[in-house]
Amino acid sequence: MTMGSNVSLAALSENVGSAIVSLGWSSPTGEGDADVSVLLLDAKGKVRSDADFYFYNNPVAADGSVQLLGKEPTADGSEDRISFDLTAVPADVERIVVAASRYEQARFAELDDLKVTLADAGGESLLRFVIDDPGPVSAIIFGELYRRAEDWKFRAVGQGYESGLAGLATDFGVDIEDDEADDETESGTAAGEEPAAAPAPEAPPQTTPLEAVPAPRPPADEEAAPKKRTARPRTAKKKVTLPRAPVKSLAENESWKSARLFPVSVLKSDREREMRATSVLLSVMAQVPEFGRRLTAAFGAPAGRMETFTEVSLPHGDTPRRPDGVIRVERAGKLWTALVETKTNGNALKADQVQAYMDIAARRGYEAVITLSNDVALEGSPLVDVKIDRRRKHQVALWHLSWAEVAHQAQMLIRHEGVGNAAHAWLLQELLHYLQHDNSGCHGFQNMGSAWVPVRNGIDDETLCQGDPRALEVVESWERLIRQVCLRLGGELGQKVLPAQRVRRGTDPGARRARLADQLCLEGRLQAELRVEGAPGLLTVNADLRTAKLRTSVEIPAPEQGYPLTWAKRLLRRLAEAPADLHVETLVEGDTGGPRGTLERLRPEPADLLPKDSATRITGFRLSLFKSMGSGRGSAESGFIRSVDDAVHRFYTSVVVHLDAPASGRAAAAAAAKERATV
Predict the structure, then answer these.
(1) Rounded distance, CA 178 to CA 291, Å?
(2) Fewer beta carbons under 10 A from the terminal one: N or C of the chain?
(3) Chain centroid to CA 59: how far?
(4) Is the omega angle on the peptide bond into residue 579 within 30 degrees of 0, that is, cis?
(5) What pLDDT digit, counting tens, does each position of 169-201 carry?
(6) pLDDT for 84 beyond 80
(7) Beta strands of 332-416 (E only): which ranges?
(8) Long-range contacts of 667-672 (CB under 8 A, 24+ apart)
(9) Which residues fall within 8 angstroms of residue 165, CB to CB, at 6 or more apart?
(10) CA-CA distance, 398 to 119, in Å (whole number)?
């Protein structure tokens, strides 16, 4: 689509009762990010109340019409997804604005590949709109859904705001409570434009640019009697709702074990584990609406009454099939149904089983088949190959969910975002305990595969050649491991943690992995970068298979103002609680490296971090921890997977947590002034 153009969703698909809108972007530095927001507008172009404003502190509509699903990594960067149940949108809502904003002094001109895509309920992509030149704005309206008679249409907008999230929301009638609101412009006009006098008419297809978005403010006499609002939305992040510290036990000694809702001690076989895990998960999904909706909305399910079933018998030729579970959601008399196939431990999904369920779902008019296992699906690399009959009028979507993702969503709700009541929190706590128990078989990705040992030995004795397919298997396993590490760290911190991939737009995932496999054969190293919200830089993980060492590191840019010695002293003060064996390296311009040393040696002599030549420009500092790498392919104590997970967790909690978050321009100037005053 082009800016200002519009299209009817019904003309693109017959399955548009619900839709998934995705906003995507990439960053040249790998550190840029933005937050999405949605506004429901009435015929006057205003929200009916502050509840019609959905953002990170208000992600789900009570009627299920809107749900912010969060971020997912892509080959180009990341994308933020939003689920819309268009059948549930109230009749007096005529427009749905989809926007994104950046925080502090960040601007969209610093990001690349800005785009919005829309997919139908079956997951099929219907449209795409690319914003080529966003300009120095801190908020953008990517597009909007709007009614025309009984149909929904989508308009490509691409309009920028200099006034940020608060200014954009205020312009649509939202009463914002924000500490930064006093510093932001509240005019709400788009960058370089004047507000129009009336709501925008429908633009002719593919031609006329949008004339007036957003709708103008009401006249002064209408503003004289503002509506009374019971609570204003806050743009500050929510805090943890449940304490991390466990309540003191009343047990006499450690041999007394708490009674669990979902016991695991009697599980003996894989079949028992699969049956128990499926029943436990589906029952909690049905009883905790926030959790059930969080997992199913990403698959196109509507918001409504959910029921779940296990061991259902469905006819299929001469032999009935028994999927591990069935999920049904009822909304306005319509049913959404998904079949569930579950695997635990290291058991792989079977293509013939999944194919049979896809065929059954297509014949019976079901919407989806969901596979659930410890494996992690990769972009462009499905876990099972199935044939989809495109001649069928009814299409079935195939989705995959990792047990690590299930545990992540449960932890985010009970530790950071909160749930409806104490009973729901307790149920999720019991589920999380079950998933994390050694006997449940639901531990997430836990095996680097059969190629791990031959590749490691081939690198050690220098016999591994480029093009060896086993190297590609190890690269794919490494990518799965890193995605899982991000889930675990993000669930622990309550922050966004995503893999950062610095690749060109449109790069084929398979070609990218093949290139990394060749690099592994030549250099004997696996490397990944993690983008952690609030961290001063990317967290880098480097596994050197030749030396059997893991290196976790982060680079901190040098302040724009102040004196180098002050920078060094301040950094070492911040790292007072960091491990003594932390390596600190000064980064300088040019190819030559700067001074370096362990924290233990540098603490008494901060000046040792400064180059001997005072004219050499310092660009930043690199902090690194080294750890022995596990050799086994599994997740045991001595395994590679456990060693990577432990290394990332230790580095963040002992080093990164003590560092300053990236400062805004104003905060950086104030800090520099304070430093100059103390020198």
Answers:
(1) 29
(2) C
(3) 14
(4) no
(5) 888 988 765 444 333 333 333 333 433 333 444
(6) yes
(7) 334-342, 368-373, 397-402
(8) 668/559, 668/560, 668/561, 669/561, 671/559, 672/559, 672/560, 672/561, 672/562
(9) 35, 37, 55, 101, 103, 138, 139, 235
(10) 14
Q: Token pair for residue 621? A: 């500092």
* Contact in structure between 531 and 31 (CB atoms under 8 Å): yes
Contact assessment for residue 196 and residue 188, using Cβ atoms and an 8 Å cutoff: no
For residues 96 and 39, the answer to whether their CB atoms sit within 8 Å is: yes
User: Mapping DSSP to helix (H, G, I), strand (E, B) and coil, where does residue 423 land?
Assistant: helix
Other C-beta atoms within 10 Å of 208: how many?
A: 13
Token pair, residue 469, equals 């397919």
pTM over 0.85: no
How far is residue 532 from each of residues 342, 518, 543, measured CA to CA in Å?
Answer: 31, 28, 19
Contacts of 245 (CB under 8 A, 6+ apart): none
Burial of 265 (0-12, 13-18, 19+ CB in 10 A): exposed
């009749």: which residue's tokens? Answer: 91
H-run or E-run covering 188: none
Q: Could you tell me which of 26, 152, 108, 121 has the C-alpha nearest to residue 531?
A: 26
Residues 6+ apart with CB under 8 A from 169: 37, 39, 53, 176, 233
* Count of CB atoms situated within 10 Å of the CB of 142: 23
pLDDT digit string, tens, across residues 458-477:
999 999 999 999 999 999 99
What letter represents residue 166's amino acid? A
Distance CA 408, CA 414 (A): 10
Q: Which two tokens stand for residue 288?
A: 């905790």
Paired tokens of 161: 């705001």
Quote the tokens at residue 642: 């456990």
Point out which residues pair with 340 in neighbouring strands: 325, 370
Amino acid at 215: A
